[in-house]
Request: fold
Amino acid sequence: MKKIKWAILTFAILFSIGSAFATRPHNFGTLYYWTGTTYMPVGTLGVNYVCESSTQVCTYTYSNGVYTPFNTSSTYTPIGATTPATKPASKSEK
Amino acid sequence: MSKKQVALECVCALLILLFLYASVSKFLAFKTFIDQMNNQPLPNSWTPFLVWAIPLLEVAISISLLFEYTRLIGLYASLFIMVLFSAYTGIVLLHFFPYIPCSCGGVIQKLTWLQHLILNLFYVALSILGIILTTRKFINPIQITTKHSLV
Reply:
């Protein structure tokens, strides 16, 4: 009887703690880009760039309430240092 | 183990699942939780107290539900806190506040306020069921027979 009780309760404890860890918000912090010799910070997630699920452009810069696609994952450019080569399609703020 | 006992263990397990998940989620994203609490239509001076009191109370309820000795206290505490949360959710839904704050706590924050209310009411019902099952379990059938025979 006690075995069944503790089996149920142990499952509840493990499942709840495991679920909490599995669904915790991920803090990606600063995104870096490779200059060829060193890594430089691009921006801070949620502050001046966001990363959206996409097969092509992931990173969007955020300025004056507008999200702008910002290069691909392999060719990040520091925000404010260089403008994207092609004119980006603006995406209004969520 | 009777069906009632299994049902009681399942009720307690579901309550532990909710409270432990909610508290661990809050501790894992504590800074976010503080921000969310500041966003609630409650005085911000309450925040330093509430950000510790709510998750610690949830952990305390979870622990009390584990042991038969403290289970009834835990069930009453969970009923009290779920009624409180339901009332708060109801007040939000009735637009008593100037704005609708976020609903916090891990994946639960993805629920709408109406879904949140339904979930809270479900857990209110579970707490009541748990109290009924626990109190019935403690009543000794021999005592009932004796009482009836005296009358």
The radius of gyration of chain A is 21 Å. The CA atoms of residues 37 and 75 of chain A lie 14 Å apart.
